[in-house]
């Protein structure tokens, strides 16, 4: 996918990734809306993923309705309960109207606030998901550049080995944790018998002397390195290096991961929701009686009406249960998407670190071999010139 990132240098890519990591608000202080939009177009989220993260109507309206029901049952239930406890009458229509309007205003405001809170949280999650996707894309392009850089370093070393008539290039394929640049160079220098045979007399002595100097320096460095390793957490680091990151992102089932929490949380939702509805059903006949609406009182007292009320209560309780499961499942899917992107981002970052480490070691080998290669070319040319 060509999006302009491939034209940036590795330094520019790293700089861009660090700024993107700090979020959209950070970018707004430094870039125009058009420039920010250009960055966020680097990696688009598919519609299915966007639907999984974004809040849908059942989640928004369900949470708002739960909040409104809580306010209604709290205020009306408290009024009816306190009135019954203190033996006050409920036939004051102004008080009832005031409480009803209070329920509507408070319940509506709390429900709307809850609606806005969920919407804001899901929008932030969606933006975070986009940010992680852009970071991953930037690091993916950067890793491609690092791999190309590593290939070029390999070619350079292979050319040097070919000139020095060394056939051992297997170390180039070693995993980073097994690649010790000093040991590799010592091994390569010990294989330069064919190169010394091409030289004669003083040229051969000078070449061997230079090789011995470098070998002595490397051996001294290895001794110091081995001493340092004994003082470090070598075993721990070795284990971490040998434990590769998972290639596939594995996600647990929502039910399996949250079974205990679901069971514990659903009980108060079901029982509390079901019992709260009888604040209306139980208090309505008494309210009608005290306000002098005997026709309504007798109607609400009929057995079949009570059966209908129980069915309504069960239906609303089932709806509240659905809202609970749906809201928690949506939250789980949201977290799952962010976790997946974090894992993918971690893999790209780990890959970048390994590539950078290997490039440094390969370049270190090249730096040690280059002077030997240059000296060998000069001496060989001098030898050829003398023969001519």
Question: Layout of helices and strands, plus pairs?
Answer:
Layout: H1 10-21, H2 24-28, H3 33-40, H4 47-53, H5 57-85, H6 93-163, H7 181-189, H8 193-197, H9 201-230, H10 234-242, H11 254-276, H12 278-290, H13 294-300, H14 303-387
Helix pairs in contact: 1-6, 5-6, 5-14, 6-14, 7-9, 7-14, 9-14, 11-14, 12-13
Main features:
388 residues; rod-shaped; mainly alpha; single chain
Concise overview:
By secondary structure, this protein is mainly α. Helix content is 81%, strand content 0%.
Can you offer a commentary on this structure?
With 388 residues, this protein is mostly helical. The protein is 81% helix and 0% strand. The protein is built from 14 helices and no strands. Helix 7 (181-189) packs parallel to helix 14, helix 11 runs antiparallel to helix 14 and helix 12 runs antiparallel to helix 13. The radius of gyration is 37 Å and the shape is rod-shaped. It starts with 9 loop residues before the first helix and ends with a helix. The mean pLDDT is 78.
Helix amount: over 70%
* Structural Rg: 37 Å
Averaged pLDDT: 78
Strand content: under 5%
Largest sheet: none
Helix/strand/pairing class, anyone? mainly alpha
- 3D shape: rod-shaped
List low-confidence stretches.
none
Helix-strand pattern, N to C?
HHHHHHHHHHHHHH
Q: Give me the count of strands.
A: 0
- The termini sit apart by 57 Å
What is the number of helical segments per DSSP (H or I, 4+ residues)? 14
């Amino acid at each position: 996918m060509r999006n302009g990132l491939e034209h940036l240098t590795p330094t520019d890519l790293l700089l861009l990734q660090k700024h993107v990591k700090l979020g959209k608000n950070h970018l707004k202080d430094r870039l125009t809306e058009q420039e920010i939009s250009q960055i966020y177009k680097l990696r688009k989220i598919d519609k299915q993923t966007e639907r999984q993260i974004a809040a849908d109507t059942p989640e928004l309206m369900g949470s708002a309705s739960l909040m409104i029901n809580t306010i209604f049952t709290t205020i009306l239930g408290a009024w009816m309960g306190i009135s019954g406890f203190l033996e006050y009458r409920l036939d004051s229509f102004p008080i009832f109207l005031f409480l009803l309007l209070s329920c509507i205003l408070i319940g509506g405001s709390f429900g709307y606030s809850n609606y806005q809170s969920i919407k804001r949280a899901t929008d932030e999650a969606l933006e975070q998901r986009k940010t992680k996707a852009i970071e991953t894309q930037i690091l993916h392009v950067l890793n491609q550049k690092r791999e190309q850089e590593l290939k070029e370093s390999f070619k350079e070393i292979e050319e040097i080995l070919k000139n020095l008539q060394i056939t051992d290039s297997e170390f180039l394929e070693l995993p980073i944790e097994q690649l010790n640049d000093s040991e590799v160079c010592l091994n390569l220098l010990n294989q330069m018998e064919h190169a010394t045979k091409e030289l004669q007399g003083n040229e051969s002595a000078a070449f061997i002397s230079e090789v011995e100097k470098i070998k002595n320096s490397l051996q001294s460095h290895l001794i110091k390195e081995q001493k340092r390793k004994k003082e470090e957490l070598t075993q721990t680091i070795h284990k971490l290096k040998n434990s590769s990151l998972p290639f596939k992102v594995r996600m647990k089932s929502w039910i399996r991961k949250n079974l205990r929490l679901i069971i514990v949380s659903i009980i108060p939702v079901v029982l509390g929701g079901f019992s709260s509805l009888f604040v209306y059903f139980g208090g309505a006949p008494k309210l009608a009686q005290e306000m002098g609406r005997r026709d309504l009182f007798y109607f609400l007292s009929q057995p079949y009406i009570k059966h209908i009320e129980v069915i309504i209560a069960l239906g609303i309780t089932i709806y509240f249960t659905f809202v609970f499961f749906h809201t928690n499942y949506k939250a789980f899917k949201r977290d799952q998407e962010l976790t997946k992107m974090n894992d993918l981002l971690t893999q790209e970052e780990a890959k970048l670190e390994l590539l950078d480490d290997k490039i440094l070691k390969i370049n270190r080998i090249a730096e040690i071999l280059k002077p030997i290669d240059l000296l060998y070319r000069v001496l060989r040319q001098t030898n050829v010139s003398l023969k001519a």
